[in-house]
Amino acid sequence: TFLGGTGLVLAFISVAWLGYLDYQNKVRNGTGHVPLALYGWAAGFCVIWGVVVFLIKPVMDEGLSIGNFAFGWYLGALGSASMIALRRHRSTSLKRPTRSDHLSSSLLAIINLTAVTLLAGAFAIGTVVSVQPLFMAAEAIVPVILGLYIMNEIKNMSFWQGVAVVVGIAGLEAIVLGF
C-alpha cells in the first residue's frame, strides 16, 4: 500500500540521516560513536531475518509443532555458539564468564525462547502480511525507546538526531498501519 511504502521510505531516510549526522559529528570533532561497520552488520541482520521470516510460514503450514520449531531453532543456535567457542582460544579479548553472566544469559535465553515460540505461534495462526509488520515495528521501536529513556541516550542526542529518530518511528508506524 501507499502508506506502507511511505513508511519504508521514511525508515530508510531515518537510518541514512542518522548515519550522515554521526559521520558529520566525527568529521567535525572526532566524537562520532557509531562505527561504519555497524551499518553493514545491521544490513546483514536484516537480510538474515528477512530470509528466516520468509521461511517460517511455509514450515509452520507444513504442520511442524511450535515445540519442534523452537528445538530446531536453538539446536542451530547451539551449533553457531559452538563454532564461536572453538575459535575463542584465538582471541585475547574474551574473558571467562562470571556467575552473573550465566544468570543474565539464562534470563535472556528464556526471554528469547518465549519470543521465538510466540513468533512461531503467530505465524501458525496468522498470515505473514498481517503478523510480520507488527513484529518488525516492535523489534525496532521498543529497543529505541529503551535506549533513549532507560540507557539515557537522549541526553547525548542533538536536535536533528532526535528529528531523525522521530521520522524513523513514524515510518515504522506507517508500515504497520499500511499493511
Written description of the protein model:
This protein is mostly helical. The chain contains 6 helices and no strands. It has helices at residues 2-29, 36-61, 66-87, 99-125, 128-150, 159-178. The relative contact order is 0.17. The mean pLDDT is 78.
How are the elements arranged and paired?
Elements: H1 2-29, H2 36-61, H3 66-87, H4 99-125, H5 128-150, H6 159-178
Structural class: mainly alpha
Approximate shape: globular
- Estimated radius of gyration: 19 Å
Total strand segments: 0
Unreliable segments (pLDDT under 50, ≥5 consecutive)?
A: none
Straight-line distance between termini: 7 Å
Order of helices and strands: HHHHHH
| Major sheet attributes | none
Helical amount: over 70%
Strand content: under 5%
* Contiguous helical run count: 6
Q: What is the residue-mean pLDDT, rounded to a whole number?
A: 78
Give me a quick take on this structure:
With 179 residues, the chain is mainly alpha-helical. The protein has helices at 2-29, 36-61, 66-87, 99-125, 128-150, 159-178.
Features:
single chain, 179 residues, mainly alpha, 82% helix, 0% strand, globular
